[in-house]
Design goal:
three-stranded mixed β-sheet, two-stranded antiparallel sheet, 5 strands, mainly alpha, 56% helix, binds zinc ion
Length: 274
């Protein structure tokens, strides 16, 4: 197959939402085993991530609330240790070798949190009241870190590069179309999202992040049952203004909460209270 034919086939497959099980550029998600398509070399990913993260921190104000900031960092450290332990147990520790974890709390009314590749986490002060306490922070931290270690952003970014920018390499895209590439990046990683933690990911990625997140929080010593009340508070907060499930790319709150309830017994097997 010529490169050109392979390329058209890939676009077709992306457009049809078909997983890339048999093509190169394919890897599996830990725990769920789902195949995913990722054409971005890890080195490119991590260098863009640390650039975007540090410019985000320069343009946004860190929270002055020391106890809350410390809590975000504490929970982050515990989730990080759990993720590392999980990856070692699966023989996947190489995947985290280049991670340089950071946890920051930024002053903003936005109800949001995200984790860029390499473990670069931001919480917005707007999500803290919905978290409520340390365990609530762990629900969000587990979920966002799960998106990162399952490489959901890289997957989205790969699709974006293919469909919107013609399949060029990330470095070339950044050089030739810096604005579009940066926009693509922000959307892929949720950093530009205005509507809360749900916005930027697909439905299957969301369920996967819920699944992995519950296991990570349990391993970190947080009761995974707290995820149910967190998502209930999230649902109340959005006040029923969300679009109905069929036009949204995300599970409705009710579906999500029911799915989480089904996953809790599995997560509890990993739970060691601290
Ligand atoms: Zn999510």
């Amino acid at each position: 197959m010529t490169v050109r034919r392979l390329f058209s086939l890939m676009i077709l497959l992306v457009a049809m939402g078909i997983p890339f099980g048999l093509l190169e550029g394919c890897s599996s998600v830990p725990l769920t085993g789902r195949k995913q398509f990722n054409i971005i070399p890890e080195g490119e990913m991590l260098s863009m991530s640390s650039q975007q993260y540090s410019s985000f921190l320069k343009e946004n104000k860190l929270s002055g609330d020391k106890p809350q900031t410390d809590l975000v960092k504490k929970v982050g450290g515990r989730i990080k240790a759990a993720v590392e332990q999980y990856f070692v147990s699966q023989g996947l520790e190489k995947e985290l070798a280049s991670y340089k974890w950071e946890f920051n709390l930024v002053e903003s009314k936005e109800v949001n949190a995200w984790c860029m590749p390499g473990g670069k986490v931001v919480f917005y002060t707007g999500i803290m009241p919905i978290c409520g306490d340390e365990t609530g922070i762990a629900v969000v931290m587990g979920h966002e870190v799960a998106h990162a270690v399952a490489q959901h952003g890289a997957e989205r970014m790969s699709q974006g590069l293919l469909v919107q920018l013609g399949g060029v390499a990330l470095g070339a895209a950044l050089q030739n179309k810096p604005k579009e590439t940066q926009q693509l990046w922000m959307t892929a990683f949720g950093a530009g999202a205005q509507l809360g933690v749900l916005l930027p990911f697909s439905r299957s990625q969301e369920s996967e992040a819920d699944h992995l997140g519950l296991v990570f929080m349990a391993m970190a010593g947080y009761d995974p049952n707290a995820a149910v009340s967190f998502w209930q508070r999230m649902a109340q907060q959005s006040g029923g203004q969300k679009p109905p499930e069929f036009i949204s790319t995300h599970p409705s709150d009710e579906t999500r909460i029911n799915d989480i309830k089904k996953l809790i017994p599995e997560a509890l097997k990993y739970y060691k209270p601290k």
